[in-house]
Design goal:
- By secondary structure, this protein is mainly alpha-helical.
- The chain contains 14 helices and no strands.
- It has helices spanning 2-10, 18-31, 33-41, 49-71, 79-107, 112-120, 124-133, 140-157, 168-188, 201-222, 226-236, 239-269, 276-294, 302-318.
- The protein is globular, with a radius of gyration of 20 Å.
């Protein structure tokens, strides 16, 4: 039944057009800003951000396992390759969990839009590693893109600090950047090996979400005392925890299966696969910057505007052929 539905929509011309691919990438990228908004807003509402990640991972893992069995989309790689890929992705997710916790704390004492943009700019590092170690072709435009992204980070760092944190948010944001750089390199590492292609996306999603789940459990156990246990019980009764969790996972799972991967496939089919991630990352940076201005009421200065323009330009150049 599932495959019949997929085949039906695939037969409609629009869903195999460039227009669909572009629209899908912009929508998916824009939806990512919800993660930043939730991680920044949850602590202000008394919600522990790690619990949002924990229960989100539980929902995503359960849903993905059901879908895997329903579609019989199992790994056809050897058990060793499957294990290696899953362990790499699970560890990558653990780093992502840590980054989100650091980002959440940074957002409590600094400009949310700048912090989000700094961390998202980490996508420059997988390209640098790919060119150095995995024969990803270096071009003048890609080199220019790397320079622009690094320049954007400098401009973001020059943003005036109007908080009383003494620049603490910058330390947390750049720590998040370093962790994200390592995490993104790990997440794309399996793609460089042909055998890993036999590990389907749904299995990779399960491994990733298991990494989030285990990390969240360990994180909470390490902080466990009577006060933290009381906070957990209080949060479980708080409707905001479940609103945050359901909102994030609805868009995460729904868009993953209907827009993210189908959109990337369409872009690749039309020879525009390299533009997929720049479009998504650019969309999420722009959407979060707008959200920080109109929803969070943050001030937007000259350095931020310049950094935003330079950052998006770098994202475009870095993925050109």
């Amino acid at each position: 039944m599932f495959h019949q539905i997929v085949d039906f929509f695939s037969s409609i011309p629009f869903f195999s057009s460039v227009a669909f691919g572009i629209i899908a990438m912009v929508i998916v990228g824009s939806s990512w800003c919800l993660v930043g908004l939730v991680m920044g807003d949850a602590p202000k509402k008394g919600i522990d951000s790690s619990l949002v990640q924990l229960w989100g991972a539980v929902i995503a893992t359960t849903s993905s396992i059901v879908i895997m069995f329903a579609t019989s989309d199992y790994s056809t790689a050897s058990w060793k390759v499957t294990l290696y890929v899953c362990l790499i992705l699970a560890f990558s997710a653990a780093l992502n969990f840590l980054m989100l916790e650091l980002m959440s704390r940074a957002m409590q004492c600094g400009p949310n839009g700048v912090i989000w943009s700094i961390i998202q700019s980490a996508m420059v590092f997988p390209f640098m590693v790919g060119m150095i170690f995995f024969d990803v072709k270096f071009t003048i435009l890609r080199g220019l893109g790397i320079v622009l992204l690094l320049a954007a980070l400098v401009l973001f760092a020059l943003t005036k600090d109007n908080s009383n944190s003494g620049g603490k948010w910058k330390l947390l944001a750049f720590a998040g950047l370093v962790i994200t750089a390592i995490q993104q390199n790990l997440s794309v590492l399996p793609s460089y090996f042909a055998e890993a292609d036999k590990v389907p996306s749904i299995v990779r999603v399960i491994a990733t979400e298991m990494g989030f789940m285990i990390s969240a459990i360990i994180w909470n156990l390490m902080r466990m005392n009577k006060e933290h246990w009381q906070k957990i019980k209080s949060n479980l009764k708080n409707g905001m925890l479940w609103k945050y969790t359901i909102a994030l996972q609805f868009f995460n799972l729904f868009f993953s299966y209907t827009l993210h991967y189908p959109g990337m496939n369409v872009m690749a089919d039309h020879g525009m696969g390299g533009m997929s991630y720049p479009m998504m990352v650019g969309s999420c940076i722009v959407s979060f910057s707008l959200s920080s201005i109109f929803l969070l009421k943050e001030k937007f200065n000259f350095y931020q505007l310049g950094a935003l323009i330079v950052c998006i330009s770098g994202l475009v150049f870095i993925c050109t052929k």
